[in-house]
Structure prediction request, 368 residues.
Amino acid sequence: MIKNLMFLLPLCFLFSCKTEPSAPSVDKNAIVDSTITAFQKTLLKQQVDSVFKKYHFNGSIAVFKDSLPLYRKENGYSDFKRKIKIDSATIFAIGSISKQFTAAMVLLQMEQGKLNMTDKVSKYLKEFQIKEYENITIHQLLNHTSGLNMMGSKLMFKSGTDFNYSNDGFNALGKIVETVSGKSYNDNALELFKKAGMAHSSTGDIFKGTHFASAYLGNANKSEEVPNMPKRLGGKEIGTPAGGILSTIDDLHTWNSALYGGKILKPETLKLFMAKSSERRHAIFGKMGYAYGIMLNIGKPNSYFHSGYVKGSPSLNIYYPETKTSVIILSNIADEEKGKGLVFKPHIEVKKITDHLENTLNQLRSGN
Prediction:
């Protein structure tokens, strides 16, 4: 990793240069900003390109600072058999990144006065009207503290006392959205995509477009296509509210900008969405905070992110609010035999690169 000094030297040079009294005024801030941006682009190209090369990464990675693209690269195929290359229009299954969309739908219903976070789920869903589940709240489903694992099984712990990641919990949230809105989850999703400006996103249930990246298990030398994609995402094994949304690099960037820019939720609702209310020990990314369908770094830099995985499709979406930077990693092949730790190695390395870069920029900004 290139040290912070590489950033500091050119900036120090700029500030040390004195302008002659007769010279026209210079916007030093603009010069510094352009210099920092140039260094960001250079660093990202060097280091993220090396990730592509090291792992023979088949997919797409992009970094945007607000509306400015800092890095973008596509590599490999969306369809291995027909040798169709991944491009900027390629649509990927995003797995559990879908959960933040479901959380936003729930919060939008709250803004309309149709539910509250403290409401018991049993108020809306019959399957929760049993003694074991009757006290589970919407809040607890959103931050995975309900104790629910799979529907029909015993709770892992008393609701509200611990963390257990549950796809079934988020699928229940999808049903609540349907119940209180009087519309299907898919219709709610399409409305949300339209509100955010996501022109190329869908759910696996209703996808009828082109440019979808078929999912594969294995590697570039030997792979097997995952059958019935993307329709299988709506089945019991996954569930659309938990992991069945399809999207693109550009649409996820648009989503991050709209969501964290206050265009989807009211300010107080957005604070609720982002507020750490539980902690997760992720098998791959380690200890982190959890809010409503979104994870948070513990410590610096401040970031909101979520990984996603459905067979053959590992993904990661990161947003750094202090610099309004989005980092999006989408892929359509996974060598499951090597374990998810290795499947997500490229994602982990890119996150380390961008975390470090974000910390460096914040240090420069604060003058430390």
